[in-house]
Amino acid sequence: MLTISSVSKSYGSLTALSDVSLDIAPGEFLGLLGPNGAGKSTLMSLISGLKRPDAGSITLNDISTTNGDHQARHELGLVPQNIALYDELTAEENLQVFGELFGLDHKTLRERITEGLSAVGLEDRRKDRVKSFSGGMKRRLNIIAALLHRPKMLLCDEPTVGVDPQSRNAIFELLEKLNREGLTVVYSTHYMEEATRLCSRIAIIDHGKILASGTLAQLLEQLPSAERIRITRSDASLLALPELEALGALVTVDGAHTLAVRAGTQLSTVFQVLEKHGVASAGCTLTRPGLEDVFLHLTGKAFRE
Amino acid sequence: MSKSPDFKTALLMSTVLSLLRKDIRLFLRNKVAFGLTFIVPLVLVYIFGQVFGVNRSSSGPTGVPIAVVNESDAAVATAIIEAMEAESAFQVIHTWEDAAGVEQPLTADRARELIRDNKMRFGLVFPPDTMSEERFGLRLIFLNNPRNEIETQTVTGLLQKVIFTSAPQALMTSLKEQAESYIGTAETTAFYDGMARTISDAFDLKYETVRADMEAGVMNFGADDSASEEGKADSADASSFIDQIVAIENEQLAGADVKSPAATRVVGGWAIMFLLFSVSGASTALFEEKQAGIFHRLLASPVSRSHILWSKYLFNMLMGLVQLTVLFIAGQIMFGIEVIPHLPSLLVVALCASIACTAFGMLLSAIAPNPAAASGLATFLILTMSAIGGAWFPTSFMPEFIQSISKLTLVYWSMEGFIAVLWAHKSIFEILPILAVLLGMAAVVNVFSVWRFNRGNLFE
Question: Which residue in A180, A175, A151, A186 sits closest to A22, CA to CA?
Answer without folding.
Answer: A186
